[in-house]
Amino acid sequence: MCAAAAKMFMVSSSTAAKWAQRYRAEGPAGMADRSSRPHRSPAKTPLGLVRRIVRLRWRHRLGPARIAGWLGMPASTVHAVLVRCRINQLARIDRATCEPLPRYEHDRPDR
Predict the structure, then answer these.
(1) Residue 90: how many CB atoms within 10 A of its CB?
(2) Alpha carbon 65 to chain centroid distance?
(3) Phi, psi for residue 100 in degrees, rounded to 5
(4) Phi and psi at residue 33, in whole multiples of 5°?
């Protein structure tokens, strides 16, 4: 039965079985769209560590690999934190003051 429904809706048989189980447990309310976002993230980078990464980036202008070496963690995690904080590109930081560069936005482009 699930295999035929899976073929009709063009999904895998495991997905169809999951939907059928959800319908049996919750009825029509179980068929509503749900967020795929996890309820919790146990492996989330702690806030204190995020602050240390950002502080090293601002004060010493280090890249993800060097920060990872200092903190003893994977460079990919450091890079993900920098992207999340929108400071992954050193070109966006003023070299003299280590402050974010101001963005100038105009109503229309100059000729």
Answers:
(1) 12
(2) 19
(3) -60, 140
(4) -60, 140
Contact 1, 7 (CB under 8 A): no
Tokens of 49: 């560590």
Q: What is the mean pLDDT of each run of 10 residues along the chain (111 residues)?
A: 85 90 91 87 91 91 92 95 88 70 75 58
Return the structure tokens found at 65.
């690999």
Residue 94: HSE in the Cβ half-sphere, 13 Å Cα cutoff: 8
Query: What is each CA distance from 100 to 15, 19, 30, in whole angstroms?
Result: 46, 48, 47
Cβ atoms of 56 and 67 closer than 8 Å: yes
pTM above 0.85? no
How open is the CA angle 104-109-111, to the nearest 5 degrees? 130
Cβ distance 2 to 17 under 8 Å?
A: yes
